[in-house]
């Protein structure tokens, strides 16, 4: 029973990685489709959205079943709840990739403005952040999760840089305004994808360390939720029953 | 033990409502501060951010403790997991209110462009959606949760309308570009706040109905996670042990 439970937790992590690969592929297809002006590639993002939605429902369902059937310890429960939170982050990465695809479709109706500034680079970084945040979960690698948090600042800087360049563009030639706005929107969407990866990395640090790093909460302040508290909770539970 | 558990679940719901009121107040202060050009009101949003972050940590902690100490049934477990997801939505409403406040602070550095088009109206609707999504949880009111989902379309329409008006603004007078862009950004942030309320309403429908309405999944397809499955899960659990 115990072994089966941990086997299923392992499967869950593996399938979460696959869901992450799909989310990244969606971002890649939307931005590469824009770069290569390839409408077919962009259309693919809409099909992939169905699949990522299906995966979220399936994985969440398995999480609920697992935690209802077994009585997980506090640390396993934290993992299961983190997975449910992460499927929702990944589904939103997918949603946001669809937003990028829609803006790209608008842009394909008109002649190109000019090279896409740092947008492809932002997309690369955001995709890597999604990948690394999930790898940090599977490998229990806090260092990697922390690296994801740091990279988010880089994405914010790129977003500001892209915004400045696009504004001077619009000022120089007001005929580019509506196209420049779509690009501005796309850079905002990519920033949001990086934010989702950041949220995942924070959840990973929370479950691996048993500590809450959100909002700069110090390790140990969340005593009851920490790994060491598993034992304490068990004892309390027995005492009260 | 059982009574204490349900009493604590009740307290959790009540405190979640308070957290929602704080999130709504943050949105209100940011947008009213912009409308009245009141820098003090806008500054308040930054202080409130500390408080909403603290509330998230505290409520999550209580959820983890509750589910580790008691062995909740599938439906109670769904409620607890939904609360953890909802605190994270509300914290992001707060984050997004801070984004609105920052854009408003930029705008206060310059002379006003003109009345704020439909931005105050978008803010009102988004705040009401946050309130209604939480009320639907506390009262188990599926009808209200469904109304929140429908209102989201209205917000999306307002966002498009605001964008169109701002673009014609920029075209007519390119000197307004940077200010119009801040307003555009604010309308996007308000749309995102409405999205968070929509996510909450979907979670509420999920726990009340025991069915997953996300991605148009039909009631009953998530059999194992449904209220009726509580019994089935108990039996399976006993059989396997």
Q: Can you characterise this structure?
A:
The structure is a homodimer of 241-residue chains. Chain A is an all-alpha fold. Chain A has one domain (2-209): Phosphate transport system protein phou homolog 2, domain 2 (Methane Monooxygenase Hydroxylase, Chain G, domain 1), CATH 1.20.58.220. Chain A has helices at 2-35, 39-69, 74-108, 119-138, 142-172, 177-209, 229-240. The longest helix of chain A is centred in the middle third of the chain and has 35 residues, at 74-108. Chains A and B meet through α2, α3, α5, α6 and α7 of A and α2, α3, α5, α6 and α7 of B.
Termini gap of chain A: 23 Å
Helical content of chain A stands at over 70%
**What is the CATH superfamily label of chain A?**
Phosphate transport system protein phou homolog 2, domain 2
Which stretches of chain A are poorly predicted, pLDDT < 50 over at least 5 residues? 218-241
Q: In CATH terms, what is the architecture of chain A?
A: Up-down Bundle
Q: How many helical stretches of chain A?
A: 7
Largest sheet of chain A: none
Largest interface: A-B, 47 and 49 residues
Compressed to H and E, one letter per element, the order of chain A equals HHHHHHH
**Rg calc of chain A:** 21 Å
- Mean pLDDT of chain A comes to 87
Derived structural class of chain A: mainly alpha
Characterize the overall form of chain A.
Answer: elongated
- Tell me the strand percentage band of chain A: under 5%
Provide the number of structural domains of chain A. 1
- The quaternary state of the protein chains shown equals homodimer
